[in-house]
């Protein structure tokens, strides 16, 4: 009996050691995986639950929860729903949040191969139609998500109450020389720097190494591979003038990937638009500057009732 107990204790200890070693390995060599898991867990702790919605692109994973007006949060290319983890706890108190993994990202199909803009948009439409049938929703989109939000405001004004575009839009432009798929640690450092304020904390080398690894196989690379088929989803100035849904632009002043000039160009053309600028903040303000971003977003959302 004693030998059995000792064997069980030794076995449990061995499993614990293995679990710790696995955790250390993941943290050191797959920090982006750990980050995604951590942020998605934070959505669950905020009261959101994960569901699946069918779409022409395949099943789409969506986090949803809360009560009140429907608020759709769309992340950027290469990201996933967990990017909203810093502001979801505040928003879920007075909104019903709908937070999808865009097609080909996170847990959403397609899980392999190129990610077409048509698939991303189809996934967004299917998600809204399934979780807010017949309703007009407010769409908040960062980067690629802002592109999809503006596109849906143009194509389905009867379903979009407001589009809030965060460092992203549906027009051609941005920094054409930006490095988005780095091949070395040095290139990854520059890639990250162009999306953040110079005063923000530096990114560790082991994270930069994981960014390089993901650059060749991750969703950003899979989406970039379809650049030649994106033209049908780009809006020109004439199309922008047709958008009478309110559009609110929230922009990080330090963004070098989608510089402020890009936002000002849209501001000059859109019929119903306001631009809020967040100082000392880059391309993903919901992560880098959540307090300032939440304040700007709250101010934008208040316009729905005015």
What is the C-level CATH assignment?
Answer: Alpha Beta
Spatial sequence of strands, sheet with the most strands: 1-2-4-3-5-6-7-8
Overall morphology: globular
How is the CATH topology named? Rossmann fold
Approximate strand percentage: 15-25%
What do you see in this structure?
- This protein has 306 residues and is an alpha/beta fold.
- It has a single domain, classed as Alpha/Beta hydrolase fold, catalytic domain (Rossmann fold), CATH 3.40.50.
- It has helices spanning 2-29, 31-45, 88-91, 117-131, 144-155, 185-193, 205-217, 219-224, 237-241, 260-267, 285-288, 290-302; strands spanning 49-53, 60-66, 70-74, 96-100, 137-142, 160-166, 247-252, 273-278.
- Helix 10 (260-267) links the parallel strand 7 and strand 8 (273-278).
- The longest helix is centred in the first third of the chain and has 28 residues, at 2-29.
Task: Give a concise summary.
With 306 residues, the chain is of the alpha/beta class.
Keywords, separated by commas or semicolons:
306 residues, alpha/beta, Rossmann fold, 12 helices, 15% strand
Task: Itemize the secondary structure elements and their pairings.
Layout: H1 2-29, H2 31-45, E1 49-53, E2 60-66, E3 70-74, H3 88-91, E4 96-100, H4 117-131, E5 137-142, H5 144-155, E6 160-166, H6 185-193, H7 205-217, H8 219-224, H9 237-241, E7 247-252, H10 260-267, E8 273-278, H11 285-288, H12 290-302
Parallel strand pairs: 3-4, 3-5, 5-6, 6-7, 7-8
Antiparallel strand pairs: 1-2, 2-4
């Amino acid at each position: 009996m004693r030998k059995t107990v000792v064997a069980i204790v030794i076995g449990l200890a061995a499993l614990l050691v293995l679990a710790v070693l696995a955790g250390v390995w993941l943290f050191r060599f797959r920090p982006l995986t750990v980050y995604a898991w951590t942020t998605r867990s934070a959505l669950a702790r905020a009261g959101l639950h994960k569901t699946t919605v069918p779409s022409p692109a395949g099943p789409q994973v969506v986090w949803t929860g809360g009560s009140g007006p429907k608020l759709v949060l769309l992340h950027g290319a290469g990201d996933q729903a967990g990017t909203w983890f810093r502001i979801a706890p505040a928003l879920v108190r007075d909104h019903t949040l709908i937070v999808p993994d865009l097609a080909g990202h996170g847990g959403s199909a397609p899980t392999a191969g190129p990610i077409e803009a048509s698939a991303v948009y189809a996934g967004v439409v299917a998600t809204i139609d399934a979780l807010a049938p017949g309703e007009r929703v407010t769409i908040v989109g960062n980067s690629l998500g802002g592109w999809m939000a503006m596109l849906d405001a143009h194509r389905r004004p009867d379903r979009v109450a407001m589009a809030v575009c965060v460092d992203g839009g549906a027009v051609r432009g941005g920094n054409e020389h930006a490095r988005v798929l780095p091949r070395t640690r040095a290139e990854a450092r520059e890639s990250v720097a162009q999306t953040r304020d110079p005063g923000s904390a530096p990114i560790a080398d082991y994270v930069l190494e994981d960014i390089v690894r993901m650059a060749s196989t991750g969703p950003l690379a899979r989406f970039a591979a379809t650049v030649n088929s994106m033209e049908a989803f780009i809006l020109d100035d004439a199309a922008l003038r047709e958008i009478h849904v309110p559009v609110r632009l929230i922009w990080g002043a330090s963004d070098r990937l989608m510089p402020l000039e890009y936002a000002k160009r849209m501001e000059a053309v859109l019929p119903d638009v306001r631009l809020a600028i967040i100082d000392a903040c880059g391309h993903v303000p919901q992560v880098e500057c959540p307090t300032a971003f939440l304040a700007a977003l709250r101010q934008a959302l208040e316009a729905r009732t005015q």
